[in-house]
Amino acid sequence: MAFDSVFDRSIPELQELQHGERLPIDFDKMNNQIKALKTITRGVAPARQIVRVPIRPIVPKDARRAIITGGVPSTGDKLRVKFDPTLNDDTEDEFDVSLPWELRKTPFAGETRNGLLYEYDGGTKRTVTDTNDDDKETEEEILPTYFVDDYLMIAKRDPAKVGLEEDEPEWEDANAGGRRWMSPHEVGASIRRVRYISASGVDGFFGALSPLLEDEGPEDLSVFVAKGSALRRAPSDNEEIRPEWKSGEFHYVTPIDPDPLGLADKFKWMDLNVAGRTWHPTGDMILPVRQVTLQEILSDTLLVKFDPVFPEQGDAEHEFAVWKPYVLQKTRFDTGTHDGISYQYSTSTRRIATEVDTEETEQQLVVPRYKTNGVLLISRGTDNPANPAEWMDINVDARMWAAEGPRYENPEG
């Protein structure tokens, strides 16, 4: 088969202009060159085209908050959810949501990728065998765990753009909870607190590792902490990072390997950005976050007042309720079994956790403790007037349930 050109189509010859039009081109000379090009390329096959592989991005055309109703991923690929009734009208129908691709079971189960063999026990636990390192095995779990009644942020994908299969959900967990595969033994050591000292170029900052609680001991090590990827650049005109970085403030960080991220070797930690820093137009009003002081601890909410240090926030004498972070609320956990564990509360910040299968128990406390008149940061959650609390504690102090013992004292004691 002969080809007129390397592009498998004839190169058009130039046409004379209409009467009265002028252009400084010798048409005969140009057309002779085109005919010569056709002659020397006749019979030459066109270059093989590279087949484009369809990508599957999340298209944030529609993002919503949902509640897990079932299907906690024993199968490993999907969850069953419904829309959060405090924020949406269409709340009755349940539907499937895909896990993020890296947390799904199907693409990995029984496969060897980059020398790593993946074998699954259910959908949230697996054994990873490194065939390049004497078949060294590592046990991994999805942490934090998924459980029924947990909140998710989900994003709707456009089927026309991402090529969804017939039985694949249109919605996908946007992984706002930062779930990932990790060894259970990493828990407790994977998050540390760092006191900010000074900037270190555009990639990060210099700080000092600090105890989570005041009685855990002195600061023990100076470290370099990388910013999140979106913040690792110099500002362009008329933009800045808000909230601004402040010397002496605390950040929560997790250990990283800097090499795959293209970072200098000194960066061994990554900022988790619990303060929600992002780029804003210079002088633009920051997102609706308010500073309040704690007045009283209730089962699912906290009674607070606006901090009088910032009178522009609102009436500092007005007391109102804000939601606790979901995992610190009492009502949903005080009855029934959640992920194989039942809970019995003595107060809203102290409970006994019992593993149903083994009947093993653990005394647990919320740490760091809440303190009357302590400072909290809150963000507006919903404008629904039926919702008893329109605000939510965004938990910048990273409060969590921890086993009671010598390290943690009873906060009510």
Q: Strands, helices and their partners?
A:
Layout: H1 27-41, E1 62-70, E2 78-83, E3 95-98, E4 112-113, E5 116-120, E6 125-130, E7 136-143, E8 151-156, H2 159-162, E9 171-173, E10 180-182, E11 192-200, E12 204-210, E13 221-226, E14 239-242, E15 250-255, E16 267-271, E17 278-281, E18 289-297, E19 301-306, E20 319-323, E21 337-338, E22 341-347, E23 350-355, E24 361-367, E25 375-380, E26 391-393, E27 400-403
Parallel strand pairs: 3-9, 13-16, 20-26
Antiparallel strand pairs: 1-2, 1-8, 2-3, 4-5, 5-6, 6-7, 7-10, 8-9, 11-12, 11-15, 12-13, 14-17, 15-16, 18-19, 18-25, 19-20, 21-22, 22-23, 23-24, 24-27, 25-26
Written description of the protein model:
The protein contains two helices and 27 strands. It is mainly β and 413 residues long. It folds into four domains: 51 residues, no CATH class; 125 residues, no CATH class; 90 residues, OB fold (Dihydrolipoamide Acetyltransferase, E2P); 115 residues, no CATH class. A five-stranded mixed barrel has the order 1-2-3-9-8. A five-stranded antiparallel sheet has the order 4-5-6-7-10, with no helix packed on it. Strand 22 and strand 23 form a beta hairpin. The longest helix is centred in the first third of the chain and has 15 residues. It is globular and about 90 Å long.
